[in-house]
Amino acid sequence: MKPAVLAAAAALIITAPVMAQEAPAPAPAQDWMTAPRDWSAALRQDATALHGIIIDSHPGVHDSLNPEFRARVDAGLALALRRAETTTDAGGWWWAMRAFVAGFDDGHVQMGLTDQSRGFPTRWPGFLTVYRGADQVVAVRDEADAAAPPLGARLVDCDAIPAPQLAEQRIGAFRGRWFLESQRALFGDWLFMSASNPWIREMASCRFESAGETRTYALDWRVIEPADLSARRTRLAQRGGATFGLTTLDDGGVWMSMPSFNGDPASDAHKALTPMMADWQARQAELRAAPFVVLDLRGNGGGSSHWSKEIAVALWGRDWVNAKEPQVSVAIEWRASDANLAAIQTYVDEWTAAGESAERIGWAREIVEGMTEARAAGRPYWRDQESASSRPRNGRAPPQLVRGPVYVLTDPGCASACLDAVDLWKALGAIQIGRETSADTVYMDVREAALPSGLATLVIPMKVWRGRPRGNNEPHRPTHLFDGDITDSAALQAWVRTLAAAGP
Asked: Where is the signal peptide (predicted)?
């Protein structure tokens, strides 16, 4: 059995870092950002603690297949401590810590603000750009600013720094994984936002190309109100658009939307998915006879992979799943630290109280026992041999029970257990459509850890997956690319009808 991905911190992986840097409604004048504090000391304490948590509990520290990991951790701390020497405000603390986290190039190592009621004061030059393919183009602008570049203008350079290098320095260095298309799609609009980051300066002038002419624009940086910025950024969003639901379309196609796989029984996602799964099971014959089925993962940033396995079995049948799911030699190595062990024990307690399946509870208990044994023996890992995929094939092809094509619809936010779902469903025969996904490393199953300042929470992985078929930080790329607004469900439904009509 492939183990389910732990879910307690799954929502934080994607949403917390983004929310922490948004600019929602203003908070009272005296808050954590403006209250007197030694921000240099806060940065030193939090960076040192982050380093210590990683060394104590991250599976990469003793990973012989990643010998550069420890050096990367130490280099991140060294840079943060150098920046602490000149840090004087909340922005210096936050962005130095963000750069430390980004240096791991790992979507499962994240940090979010404890108080997400507001973001940092933000300035802009009257326009924002986003990626269209490999180019940054003007996507929104201050309509009253005649000096701003026109919509659609392509960025050439700023202050003599070419656009690709500029984005990597100003965004990638604080986000990580800038080699991924999904990162550029999700965070490209940050290039012309100045959110109290003292480690990059506001650009003075930029060149844009429009209608075959290149022109230089002097940048007039000024404050943008949080509500205005939020509305503009919402219009630029390149992910989401789905709400939980199982719908039969007019032509008989079935559309199942699941913007989260959160496995926490107390979560809204769990409460929505549980009755959806019961409906999915009850309508099994209809699903298999439908002209097409769409498994809509827009907005899904992960959670627990047991949902995708249940969906697969109900749709394709257990025989088909057993025959077609990836069969490779794998093993899971859990980093055996006291903190990781305590986190797994918490899941045992929560799942037992919630009446979750005996299989899930037993899996977690086995990890607790294995980690305890490894700790007592002084070993850094407990190797979960039961996770090795070694089921023999019987040589007979099971019947194909699904009549029409099955499409898995993805956006750039698909990460963690969402990627696991795409792994499985594509192996079973689903066709990926929409946009390229995010990607993850082989370090996974996260837990939370508080930082000494009390201002931020860290998320780190606890295990390493050996022999995963999908490579480290490798995204899923769609067979059919949707170039329109990925949040427009009506347009997507019309597009999928044309795909289904055209056939495989």
From this structure: 1-20
SS3 letters for 338-407? Answer: HHHHHHHHHHHHHHHHHCCCHHHHHHHHHHHHHHHHHHHHCCCEEEEHHHCCCCCCCCCCCCCCCCCCEE
Strand ranges (E), 69-134: 110-113, 123-124, 127-132
Residue 92 belongs to what H/E stretch?
A: helix 90-102
pLDDT single digits (tens) 112-161: 999 887 789 999 999 999 999 889 999 999 999 999 999 999 999 999 99
3-state secondary structure at position 192:
helix
Contact 73, 55 (CB under 8 A): yes
Q: Is 412 helix (H, G, I), strand (E, B) or coil?
A: coil
- 423: closest CA among 487, 330, 355? 330
C-beta atoms surrounding 85 within 10 Å: 9
**Structure letter (DSSP) for residue 189:** G
The whole-angstrom separation of Cα 418 and Cα 422 is 6
Residue 240 burial (10 A CB sphere; 0-12, 13-18, 19+) = middle
% of the chain surpassing 70 pLDDT: 91
Strands 431-434 and 480-481 come out as parallel
Which residues contact residue 348 at a Cβ distance below 8 angstroms, ignoring those fewer than 6 apart?
361, 364, 365, 368
Complete DSSP assignment for 7-29? -TTHHHHHHHHHHTTS--SPPPS
* CA–CA dist 201, 204 (Å, integer): 9
- How big is the chain by its Cα radius of gyration, in Å? 24
> What letters, b where the CB count within 10 A reaches 16 and e where it falls short, cover 399-430?
eeebebbbbbbbbbbbbbbbbbbbbbbbebeb
Are the C-beta atoms of residues 340 and 443 closer than 8 Å to each other?
no
Burial of 374 (0-12, 13-18, 19+ CB in 10 A): buried
* Report field, pTM of the whole predicted structure over 0.85: no
Whether 138 and 185 have beta carbons less than 8 Å apart is answered as: no
DSSP run (H or E) holding 216: strand 213-218
State the amino acid at position 170 in one-letter form: R
* Dist CA 487 CA 61 (whole Å): 39
Calpha distance 442→499 (Å, rounded): 33
d(CA 479, CA 308): 20
> Distance between CA atoms of 55 and 45, rounded to whole angstroms?
15
